[in-house]
User: What shape does this take?
Amino acid sequence: MTHGKPQTSRQLKLAERLIVLLILCIMVGCTDVDSGSSIVGTVKLDGELLASGRVLAVSDSGHSATAKIKPDGTYRVLTREGKGLQPGRYDLAVIAYEEGGSTDPEAPRESIVPRKYTEPKTSGFSVDVEAGKTATKDLDLTSK
Assistant: This one.
């Protein structure tokens, strides 16, 4: 009987494809697992809590997420879906603009934080995130 060989060959090809797909998923990070990890802290400019703006977190592996700075100066970074961050090292940036001013939404707004803090690679702020844990990073910015 020759039916055993073609089926075994088909099963091997299917297994090979599944292994390649699994490896690609791991490399690309297509898992949808909630690690429960987050980054929390406060944001201050010259010792005063910032009441608005955003904190941007970018990992070494390319994952990114943002958080709104609350009126009490605190922030909590999660993914857009509200899930935990992927474990790894994250560089942080702060984006905050002058309140008020023009009612035109397209009018240019002036940043209230120095430019170096608006880019994750130049801000000088980074934090290591572990699976299932909350990392705390207070961001103390200076205008000078």
